[in-house]
């Protein structure tokens, strides 16, 4: 009885969802593209049998890219259907498409929209990246015998508590999955408690990402042009930048690099920095080298490896507010030590492992974080040890891509 009630609520709020898309589309025009797909209405015809991978946002799409690359090493002709929920995810996903692939919005989780989606694309199997388990979608795939799995799966204690509160809705959804492949043993335990059948602990796909050599080289070249140590605030989130700008005022001898998480906030963060009394230079205006300024603003997409190579140490965005922290794995792979705040529940085990390896340091506040980062860049021996620890940490946890690819190929009978 609970799922029909859930469906009625979703159907009732559809006008509000349309309004939300229009509002978001003002800052991010991508939300105004193919709006009817959100409601299960897709144009034209399409060939059935693609492997469907759902990557809701930017981070999940980057993880999906690693998996797709591993799959194509074994099955070069594999056709992919890539679905998303955010504009940044869809924009990143376009780079992954090859001839024969398709891309679309995953519809809102109403029975009719899900039915139209599955009838239009008729995928051979579905792979949900990390956390995206929807009750009607899971039930519809089970009813149609479409194998559905959760890959690179994670579930925090907070999310498990929410799942338990809605157990009559969430437990059948997790139970409808053919398998869950967890990132960590802790994730596996929580997923099983939520009702999923865990078929393996494969690790985190993001450890298998290879930073683009050209971006690393560019970042290191630009780093050599700065006479001051470079401290980066990586993937900053709303509510954190103000604290950061107040804290850095006490350290004039440092070159600051601020890279907001969401592109729709680039202009806002640049204006905020100017209002705080700092001179600003934006990546989008650089030609051969960063222009002199107290704060550089990283306002580009797809260049995080360059930014990490440009920095001597990075503060971890999302960890200084109660947002759970952003991914620190890419920083480690680029040899950039991390200082993180108290809130890393989105990547709890990775954060603890990084601490143990010496690749990261934890602090209680932004002020402490800025001071810790400055102390590290002013101690060449300590920073060199942290760089080596970061590289070792990243290398030690590789292998999830091949393990997950093997699981996918078994799933589709290849």
TrEMBL record:
Gene3D superfamilies: 3-Deoxy-D-manno-octulosonic-acid transferase, N-terminal domain, Glycogen Phosphorylase B
InterPro entries assigned: Glycos_transf_N, Glycos_transf_N_sf, Kdotransferase
Secretion signal, residue range per the UniProt entry: none
Subcellular location: Cell membrane
Residues annotated as domain 3-deoxy-D-manno-octulosonic-acid transferase N-terminal: 34-209
Catalytic residues identified in the record: 60 (proton acceptor)
Keyword terms of this UniProt record: Cell membrane, Lipopolysaccharide biosynthesis, Membrane, Transferase
Residues the record marks as site: Transition state stabilizer: 130, 206
GO BP, one annotated term: lipid A biosynthetic process
Pathway(s): Bacterial outer membrane biogenesis; LPS core biosynthesis
This enzyme's EC code(s): 2.4.99.12
Domain of life: Bacteria
Enzyme class: transferase
GO molecular function, one term: Kdo transferase activity
Catalytic activity: lipid IVA (E. coli) + CMP-3-deoxy-beta-D-manno-octulosonate = alpha-Kdo-(2->6)-lipid IVA (E. coli) + CMP + H(+)
GO CC annotation: plasma membrane
Function comment: Involved in lipopolysaccharide (LPS) biosynthesis. Catalyzes the transfer of 3-deoxy-D-manno-octulosonate (Kdo) residue(s) from CMP-Kdo to lipid IV(A), the tetraacyldisaccharide-1,4'-bisphosphate precursor of lipid A.
PANTHER family: 3-DEOXY-D-MANNO-OCTULOSONIC ACID TRANSFERASE, MITOCHONDRIAL-RELATED (PTHR42755:SF1), 3-DEOXY-MANNO-OCTULOSONATE CYTIDYLYLTRANSFERASE (PTHR42755)
Similarity remark: Belongs to the glycosyltransferase group 1 family.
Name of protein: 3-deoxy-D-manno-octulosonic acid transferase
Organism whose genome encodes this protein: Ramlibacter monticola
């Amino acid at each position: 009885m609970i799922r029909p009630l859930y469906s009625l609520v979703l159907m009732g709020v559809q006008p509000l969802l349309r309004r939300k898309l229009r509002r978001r589309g003002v800052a991010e025009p991508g939300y105004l593209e193919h709006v009817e797909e959100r409601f299960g209405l897709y144009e034209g015809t399409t060939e059935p049998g693609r492997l469907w991978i759902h990557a809701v946002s930017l981070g999940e799409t980057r993880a999906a890219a690693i998996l797709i690359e591993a799959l194509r090493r074994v099955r070069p002709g594999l056709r992919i259907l890539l679905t998303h929920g955010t504009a940044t995810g869809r924009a990143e996903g376009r780079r992954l498409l090859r001839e024969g692939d398709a891309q679309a919005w995953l519809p809102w989780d109403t029975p009719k929209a899900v039915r139209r989606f599955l009838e239009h694309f008729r995928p051979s199997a579905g792979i949900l990246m990390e956390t995206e388990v929807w009750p009607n979608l899971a039930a519809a795939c089970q009813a149609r015998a479409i194998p559905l799995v959760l890959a690179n799966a994670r579930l925090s204690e907070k999310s498990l508590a929410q799942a338990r509160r809605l157990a009559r809705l969430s437990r059948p959804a997790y139970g409808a999955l053919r398998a869950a492949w967890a990132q960590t043993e802790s994730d596996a335990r929580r997923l099983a408690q939520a009702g999923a059948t865990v078929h393996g602990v494969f690790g985190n796909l993001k450890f298998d990402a290879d930073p683009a050599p050209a971006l690393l080289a560019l970042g290191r070249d630009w780093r050599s042009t700065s006479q001051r140590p470079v401290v980066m605030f990586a993937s900053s989130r709303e509510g954190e930048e103000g604290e950061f700008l107040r804290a850095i005022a006490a350290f004039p001898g440092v070159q600051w690099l601020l890279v907001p998480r969401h592109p729709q906030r680039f202009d806002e963060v640049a204006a905020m920095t100017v209002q705080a009394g700092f001179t600003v230079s934006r990546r989008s205006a650089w030609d051969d080298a960063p222009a002199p300024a107290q704060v550089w603003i990283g306002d580009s997409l797809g260049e995080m490896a360059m930014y990490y190579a440009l920095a001597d140490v990075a503060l971890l965005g999302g960890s200084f507010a109660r947002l759970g922290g952003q991914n620190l794995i890419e920083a480690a792979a680029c040899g950039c030590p991390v200082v993180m705040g108290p809130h890393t529940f989105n990547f709890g085990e990775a954060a603890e492992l990084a601490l143990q390896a010496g690749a990261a340091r934890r602090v209680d506040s932004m002020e402490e974080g800025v001071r810790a980062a400055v102390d590290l860049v002013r101690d060449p021996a300590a920073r060199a040890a942290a760089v080596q620890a970061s590289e070792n940490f990243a290398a030690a946890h590789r292998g999830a891509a091949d393990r997950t690819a093997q699981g996918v190929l078994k799933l589709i009978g290849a």
